[in-house]
Specification:
The protein has 3 domains: about 220 residues, Rossmann fold (3-Layer(aba) Sandwich), CATH 3.40.50; about 180 residues, 3-Layer(bba) Sandwich (FAD/NAD(P)-binding domain); about 150 residues, D-Amino Acid Oxidase, Chain A, domain 2. About 30% of the residues lie in helices and about 25% in strands. The protein has 19 helices and 32 strands. The strands form 6 sheets. Strands 16, 17, 18, 25, 26, 27, 28, 29 and 30 form a 9-stranded mixed β-sheet that branches. Strands 6-7-5-4-8-9-11-10 form an 8-stranded mixed β-sheet, with helices on both faces. Helix 1 packs across helix 3. The two termini are about 50 Å apart. It binds flavin-adenine dinucleotide and S-adenosylmethionine.
Length: about 650
């Protein structure tokens, strides 16, 4: 909560006893302090076509600085260049307060309106907002900047230091913040701040910035600006998880036409890559991403584990993406919320702890049995946790919409990956596809090539059952889930029940036993609904269903990142077997231009699109959309490192 109040129509923070911007003219102050003293107009204009510029900020507040930078960007930067703005904020404004604050600047209306369409579904941690058709990317780091910035993967060209006056908020103007800024800066990166406080000046100098005192705005006599003159010595980090050298925008081949492949292809195409998306079936989304209804359910832990951080960031990202992609017509999308039922005592306690975890205002709320039943439109056996923004989508529609802007080659099974002097070749019948970058998005088959055979991917079979809606079952107004799930009816008059979970034994036929299991699970989940569907009398052998595969890993996390030469990797880091804490510095033996986006298990709709965005950023050397510990947790090399340390390789 911001605790923001309105004084004379201006936003004010009683917590810090300070204003969000100058009462006289916030815009002129922003332009003077942050834009002019970082020389942004000239630097934007000097960018090469297709280049990008990165601004870091402490204190997003009302977003006024961001909007001014974006406006200047539109005026000065080449049309094909892109702006990244990464901003830390501890007390995010509600959308209503943001709207009210930005309404003070009618000249910024077009920018404010677009920001407001994306300023939603925000959660603690990393939030990626895509604006101006992908030309402008805002990464909001929600939390204390002293905790978020050090976990950031970025190299800034310029900094805006704006976290309330140092006398009113000394906690943020700390040496640790300036050191993190220096570490996350390109050589020569600039900064500007409205304050001229001595502690700030000294702190920035000690971190390696050359600092100048220059005239401030309005009644403020002085302010500070400067540039990184003495880059800090790089602190040790595990080289096996460090990003590989960036690749210049060129051609990319993405193998696999499911949600992971289509998301990656779309994210690369937005950055100017010439992408070919290759799918072995005659149509996209014929395997894991082919179910009639997939639910958007953020299965979270009350502890911010890497999986929970990934799911939270992915949930908001997918919802923001879908808002611009699919209509809410109950044919391809139902934005009806998801109700997680507290089916036993342990689950009741877990959900209560989750509701208390403080992951984001309005993301979830606890309901008792009466409230839950009223909301669902069906009598329920228990209350639960309601996620109002969740719902369901028709995954093939998402995949098709994402792939709409890229070249798609269907009916082609990639059987060989060959690295030659001019890049990767995917030989086969017909055209020999050549690409600078290849992304393996083949779910459980991503390890099918010698180069990727080291990925320990497993296949898991799942079956959904489709049941005809009845007059009574049509009252179901939200997705219900517990150990199984049921969706509200689609416009075609069917519900989807899911899903079974079993090791893959080579068979994807729809089985009567799995249908019976799904019906049984519904009986436990919502007996009244089971009765309303007449499910006791339905013949499981006659019900339509669909069986497909999930790709999974032993640690339940996806596999997203660059690929390595596994044999060379094992040799390079063999010494970790004797001492896992050795601070080795050898660069990992990357397979240049080869990346993976796979193993999204049971929640690919939430994790695969963000993973696609992450990979596209990683490939080009941009600020990344997840914190460093999560990047390590999903890194393809984690299995190799674990095996070396355990003496298994
Ligand atoms: C029964 C079931 C229910 C589920 N329910 C949900 C849900 O409600 N919500 C949710 O978020 N997730 C759900 N999931 C999980 C979700 O469907 C997956 O995580 C997601 O679809 C994975 O997408 P993908 O792109 O990685 O894989 P896929 O969609 O399987 O795509 C991989 C593609 O690669 C292609 N391919 C493979 N090898 C080659 C090759 N050599 N050459 C060319 N093409 C190749 C395949 O043909 C396939 O189209 C469910 C999964 C199952 C099985
Ligand atoms: C002066 S306002 C920023 C104004 C903003 N740049 C704008 O354009 O509206 C300062 C912001 O810093 C945020 N803040 C204060 N302490 C912080 C911290 N430790 N980490 C991150 N943000 C912080 C406040 O919540 C507030 O939104």
């Amino acid at each position: 909560m911001t605790g923001l109040v309105w004084v004379d129509g201006q936003p004010f923070s009683p917590l810090y006893g300070d204003v969000y911007f100058s009462r006289h003219s916030g815009i002129d102050e922003t332009r003077h302090v942050f834009l002019r003293h970082n020389r942004l107009p000239e630097r934007f204009a000097a960018l090469p076509p297709g280049g990008f510029f990165v601004i870091g900020e402490t204190g997003f507040g009302t977003g006024l600085n961001f909007l001014c930078a974006w406006q200047e960007w539109q005026r000065s930067a080449p049309a094909s260049a892109r702006l990244h703005f990464v901003s830390g904020e501890k007390h995010p404004l509600t959308a209503a307060d943001l709207e009210r604050a930005l309404a003070l600047w009618p000249e910024m209306e077009a920018f404010s309106r677009e920001l407001l369409t994306q300023y939603r579904y925000l959660a603690t941690g990393w939030n990626r907002l895509t604006l101006a058709g992908g030309q402008v990317t805002l990464t909001l780091l929600l939390g204390d900047a002293l905790e978020t910035l050090p976990r950031c993967e970025m190299a800034a060209d310029a900094w805006f230091l704006d976290g309330f006056a140092p006398a009113k908020n000394p906690a943020v103007w700390q040496p640790a913040l300036f050191q993190a800024m220096a570490r996350l800066s390109k050589p020569g990166a600039t900064f500007a701040t409205f304050t001229s406080a001595g502690d700030v000046r000294r702190g920035l100098q000690e971190a390696g910035f050359a600092v100048e005192k220059v005239p401030g705005f309005g009644r403020k006599r002085d302010m500070l600006r400067g540039k990184l003159a003495a880059p800090p010595e790089a602190a040790w980090r595990p080289p096996w998880y460090a990003p590989p050298p960036p690749v210049k925008t060129g051609t990319a081949a993405v193998i696999g036409g499911g949600i992971a492949g289509a998301s990656t292809a779309a994210a690369l195409a937005r950055r100017g890559w010439q992408v070919t998306l290759i799918e072995r079936h005659q149509e996209l989304a014929r395997e894991g991403s082919g179910n009639p209804q997939g639910i958007l359910y953020a299965k979270l832990s009350p502890h911010p584990t890497p999986l929970t951080q990934l799911t939270l960031a992915g949930y908001g990202h997918t919802l923001r993406l879908l808002d611009g992609l699919l209509p809410e017509d109950r044919a391809v999308r139902g934005a009806c919320g998801v109700l997680q039922l507290a089916y036993d005592n342990a689950e009741n306690q877990r959900l209560a702890a989750l509701a208390d975890a403080g992951y984001g205002d309005g993301l979830m709320r606890l309901l008792d049995r009466e409230q839950a039943s009223a909301l669902a439109g069906i009598d329920l056996p228990a209350g639960g946790l309601f996620f109002p923004h969740g719902g369901w989508v028709h995954p093939p529609a998402v995949v098709q919409a994402l792939a709409a802007g890229v070249r798609v080659v269907k009916g082609r099974t990639v059987t060989e990956l060959r690295r030659e002097a001019d890049g990767w070749h995917l030989p086969g019948e017909g055209e020999d596809i050549r690409a600078d970058v290849v992304v393996l998005a083949q779910a459980g088959d991503s390890g099918a090539f010698p180069a990727s055979a080291y990925l320990p991917l497993h296949k898991n079979r799942g079956q959904v059952t489709v049941v005809p809606a009845t007059d009574e079952s049509r009252r179901l107004a939200t997705v219900l889930c517990g150990e199984s799930y049921i969706t509200p009816s689609r416009s075609d008059g069917t519900h989807t029940l899911g899903a079974t979970y079993a090791p893959f034994a080579g068979d994807l036929d729809v089985t009567t036993a799995d249908c019976a299991t799904n019906l049984d699970h519904l009986k436990n989940l919502a007996p009244t609904l089971h009765a309303a569907l007449g499910a006791g009398k339905l013949d499981p052998a006659a019900l339509p269903g669909r069986a497909s595969l999930r790709a999974v890993t032993a640690d339940h996390l996806p596999v997203v990142g660059p690929a390595v030469d596994a044999a060379a990797f094992n040799t390079c880091y063999a010494r970790l077997a004797r001492d896992a804490k050795l601070k080795l510095t050898d660069t990992a033996p990357w397979l240049p231009g080869l990346y993976v986006n796979a193993a999204h298990g049971s929640r690919g709709l939430l994790t695969a699109p963000l993973a696609g965005e992450l990979l596209a950023g990683l490939i080009g050397g941009e600020p990344l959309s997840l914190p460093a510990p999560v990047l390590a947790a999903i890194h393809p090399s984690r299995f190799l490192v674990r095996d070396i340390v355990r003496g298994k390789s």
